[in-house]
Structure formats: C-alpha cells, structure tokens
Amino acid sequence: MLLITCPFCGPRDESEFACGGEAHIVRPADPAALTDAQWADYLFMRKNVKGVHFERWMHSHGCRRWFNAARDTVTHQFLAFYKMGEQAPDIAPVSYTARPAPRTDPALPADPALHTDREGAR
Amino acid sequence: MPMLKPPPRLGGYPGKAPRLKRYSIVELARNARGHHEGWWEAWRSPEPKPRYDVVIVGGGGHGLATAYYLAKEHNIRNVAVIERGWLGGGNTGRNTTIVRSNYLQDESAALYEKSLQLFEGLSADLNYNVMFSPRGLLALCHTPHELREAQRRCHAMRLNAIDSEMVTLDGLKAMVPVLDLSGSKRYPVLGGLLQRRGGVARHDAVAWGFARGADAFGVDIIQNCEVTGIRREGDRVTGVETTRGFIGAGKVAVVAAGHTTTLADMVGLRLPIHSHPLQALVSEPVKPLLPCVVMSAQVHVYLSQSDKGEVVMGAGIDLFQSYGQRGSLPVLEGQLAAACELFPVLSRLRMLRTWAGIVDICPDASPVIAKTPIEGFYVNGGWGTGGFKATPGSGYVFAHTIARNEPHALNARYGLERFSGGLLIDEHAAAGVAH
Ligand SMILES: Cc1cc2nc3c(=O)[nH]c(=O)nc-3n(C[C@H](O)[C@H](O)[C@H](O)COP(=O)(O)OP(=O)(O)OC[C@H]3O[C@@H](n4cnc5c(N)ncnc54)[C@H](O)[C@@H]3O)c2cc1C
Ligand SMILES: [Zn+2]
C-alpha cells in the first residue's frame, strides 16, 4: 500500500486516491489546426518511464482535488508532491538499463549515452 | 495438426547441428529405468553469433512463438531470441492461463480464434504437452444490462462462427454447484455466457514447448542477456547493444510486454502503451470444486482450479504505472471479497502466494502488432492483461509480418495507424474482466 501525501490533507492511504496518469500534458490551443497524427499523439501517446515519472493523482475519497507527484516507477517511492499549475521539481532521472558489454565492433565509436553509471536501483 | 518438420540442415552452423529429440512412450520408459536423471536438455544455450537475420527481443511465449513460426512457416532460421532474464519469467510465467476467444469485435474474434485453434493442436504440433484443458469458460452476469450485453456478444461470436451459449440459472446450478445463486447478494447472479472450447493451459509449458521447437529449427535462445540499446543507420536498424556485446541484425522485433516502450524509446518511437502491475494469487490445494473457469466483470474476479487443486485467482490492474512487479494489497482484498461473494465456500481458504507481472496496456485494450516507420523494426506489444491466450496466434501473425514486411490478414488492423485514423479496436467492455 502506498502512502500518499495530499498537498491539502497530508499523508493518507493509497485507497483514498485515484491515479490520473502522466502530468503536464497541455491541451492543444487550436485542436482543429492539428494533423491526425498530432491529435493522436495528444490523445493516446504517453510517457511510460522506467524511473522518475511525473503524474497526476486525485484525492477522490478526501478533498477531491487533483495534484501532481513525482514517483519512481520501479521502487514506487514518491519523490515529490506539488500542486496543479506548479512547475515540476528538478529531479535527476534514474536509469534502470543494465550496463552494456564493451563494444565488440571497433569500427564504431563508443556511445557515451549507453555507458551510464547509474545502473540498477539506487 | 502437422508434426514438426524433420530437423533442419544448416550448413556452417557453429556448434552441434540442432535436432529435435522427440519425447515418446519409449523414451519415457527408457528414462524411467534411469530414475529420470538422463533426460536431455530441451534446448541449447549457445553463445550469440555476431549477426542474425532476425533478432527477437523478449523470450516470453510471444517472442518464442514468433521465432518458431518464423522458422516453421517462413523458413527463416538464422534467428536469435534475446531474453534479459529466464524464458517465460515475464508475464508468460505469471499469468492465470485463461484461454478463450469470446471477443466482441470482428478483428479480435478472428485473431483470438486463430490462436485458440492453434492451442487445440499445439501439444501435437510441438511434441510437448502444453496441458491445454478446454474445460469451458463461464462469464457471469449480475445485472439486466450485463445480461443483454452478454446476449449481444453471444450473437456476435456466433456470427463469427465461434461457439457461444447463454446459460440460465438452472444451467449454472448444474454446472457449478458451489456458486451462490441465492439471489441475496448485492450483485445477484442472473445468468452466464459460456464458451465451452475455452479453458486453461500450462503457461511455462507453452514457453518451453515453443523454445524447444524453435531451437530444433536452429534458432539461438540467449538468456540472461539484456538489450540496452538499438543501433541504427539512418532510418534502418542494424543491430542491438546487449550486456553480452553488440549483435548485428537485419531485423529487430520487440516482444517485451511491459518493457515494450523502454525498447521503443531506444529508437525514439512513441507508443500508446503504459505499464501497470497485474496481480494474481493462488490458494492451498483442495478437492475438485470448480469444473470450469468462472469470471465476473461486475464484482471483478476470475477463478479456475489448477490440476493440483489450487484455486487460481486474478482481477484488475493497479492503477498507477509501474515496472516493479508488485502491486498493492487493496487490489487483492477486492478480488478476494468478490471471490467470497460468489463462492462463500472459499471464505476459509488460505492463500499460498501472490505475485504480479507488468502488463502493457493499450488505450483500446487491443495489441499493436506491426512494422514501424523505422525500417527493420517491428513491435508486438500492448497485450495487456489478456495475451497468454493469444501466444500462438500472436507469434503466427507476427512472424508473417516480419518475414513479409507486411501484416497478415489477421493483424492488418493492429497497426499504429489505428490511433490516428480513429479506428480503435475497442475491447475494454467486451473483454469484460482483465485476464
Ligand atoms: C497476473 C497476470 C495474469 C494474467 N492472466 C492472463 C490470463 O488468464 N489469460 C491471458 O490470456 N493473459 C493473461 N495475462 C496476460 C499475459 O500474461 C500476457 O499478455 C502474455 O503472457 C504476454 O506474453 P509476452 O511473451 O508478450 O510477454 P512476457 O512473457 O512478459 O515476455 C517479455 C519478455 O521480454 C523480456 N525483456 C524485457 N525487456 C528486455 C530487454 N531490454 N532485453 C531482453 N529482454 C527483455 C522480459 O524479461 C520478458 O521475459 C496475465 C498477466 C498477468 C501479469
Ligand atoms: Zn486531499
């Protein structure tokens, strides 16, 4: 069971809340101007981060207000709670991808992005 | 169903040429004399080759079935299946094994029915007992509205030539005597929808059977090897970075269930898939109690009894996104309450284990089985809470998609275009419950 801190009511059991998925999605100002692909992106495509995820929660069996949270999707640990309309806090991303083996193909330069030191859980 | 083709001849194949050693009554007797200590390994564990025609990422049932049908149906045998853990250790080995094809939409009915038909001949085809048990699958209705919807689904299925029948209260009483039909409940049972050809199968055996079959065709199965990156040249994939080095590939096919988007992210492809925990639990074994699979979407639980006598139960997902392979207790409490509501006889049963898998949820509860805008990159994911039943069918159509670079007729509607084209295959309501 998660312990969730509603910014208005304080820490409560998970069973009082509903999760609303990815936060900070902005409704397009002029939907009619979008292509089908852009509209589909807005409607259906979502971040599915393995690591720090910014998401919306609603205190549905409490004050019934929406708020935002940052949560690690592997450990389930909450890293921040903040109100709607506030900026997402600056939280360093975590990578859970394993360290790749050294390149066996010398023809190509090493890709530094693949060699993260933050492998595995923190 | 046809038997496995004779062992493939593979010129210049490193290591021993694979050969399917068949299981038979003779081998059983021979090994009984040796106290069953002399059984051969069912598949090899080769070192990865520098390059394959097709690299399949994900050694669950779907990935292994894809490899099997690539070799069997399309004669593409220079194939590797790369699995970060062990075979079937993802959702394949964590699901509640329900197999059915009672879907509402035509596209789903066709695909899941193909899969059910493959299941019906699978043990013979693979020479491996997948313990498919078509014991019948009963979906309960608790409201007049649900009854009407079930009737509609029943008709829709029959129009698609899939067996389906409505069951009255008397019928239910005869079929499942322990079901509470007193009518005294908050959601009384009013009737049911039955698919007699539905049932359960042994999940591990499905993965192992396909692994063994694919291996015999020369497919390399590489476990404990995580794909950490995907290499591209321009708009084309050229191989995968792994924890065991770079592996070149003509085509890369991702069949990674809850991890689908982590792999799509590596090539910058956005997918409408999110990952959630789905939990299940199993009780201590008891005498035969449930003759068929019973599911209820209204109170939300589904149950079956394993051959060992354990009651296997599942229900809905945890609502937050997760890769943690565990969920929260309230979800389990909800499904246990539902189980006791339907079957008061279960109320003293002790639970042995609970677990979770990470399921890949699509907005329309239907999968994406498609080639992508990136050349040589294919995705099969979004099966969510109900892909075990589709394992053979999914592999069958995905192998076709990879081999021919175009979808099979059965998955033509399962591309990514459906999200921008407004052509969703909406199975949320018809799928009824998560399974
Ligand atoms: C609790 C539960 C109950 C369910 N009940 C049912 C049911 O009753 N009936 C039904 O039809 N369906 C059910 N399902 C759904 C079903 O289990 C899945 O849809 C199906 O098994 C998916 O198979 P798969 O082979 O695609 O995925 P998986 O078996 O999860 O295989 C994917 C594999 O990819 C591997 N992988 C991921 N990332 C990487 C990487 N970077 N590199 C290498 N390998 C990687 C994983 O380790 C994993 O083994 C249930 C699921 C759960 C969790
Ligand atoms: Zn509150």
Describe this structure in words.
The complex is a heterodimer of chains A (122) and B (435). Chain A has a domain at 1-30 and 41-88: Folate-binding superfamily (Folate-binding fold, 2-Layer Sandwich), CATH 3.30.2270.10. Chain A is mostly beta strands. Chain A has 1 helix and 6 strands; from the N terminus they run E-E-E-H-E-E-E. In chain A, the strands form 2 sheets. In chain A, strands 3-4-5-6 form a 4-stranded antiparallel sheet, with no helix packed on it. Chain A has one helix at 36-44; strands at residues 3-6, 10-13, 18-22, 52-58, 66-72, 78-83. Residues 109-122 of chain A have low confidence and may be disordered. Chain B is an alpha/beta fold. Chain B has 2 domains: 51-96 and 203-272 and 363-421, FAD/NAD(P)-binding domain (3-Layer(bba) Sandwich), CATH 3.50.50; 133-197 and 275-361, 2-Layer Sandwich (D-Amino Acid Oxidase, Chain A, domain 2), CATH 3.30.9.10. In chain B, the strands form 3 sheets. In chain B, strands 1, 2, 8, 9, 10, 11, 17 and 18 form an 8-stranded mixed sheet that branches. Chain B has an 8-stranded mixed sheet with strand order 5-6-4-13-14-15-12-16. In chain B, a hairpin with a 2-residue loop joins strand 9 (227-233) and strand 10. The radius of gyration of chain B is 22 Å and the shape is globular. Chain B starts with 24 loop residues before the first helix and ends in a 14-residue tail after the last helix. Residues 1-15 of chain B have low confidence and may be disordered. The interface between A and B is large, with 39 and 35 residues. Flavin-adenine dinucleotide binds at residues 57-63, 82-85, 89-92, 94-98, 226-227, 255-257, 259, 263, 278-280, 314, 357, 359, 383, 385-389, 435 of chain B. The site of flavin-adenine dinucleotide (FAD) has 40 residues of chain B, from helix 2, strand 12 and strand 16.
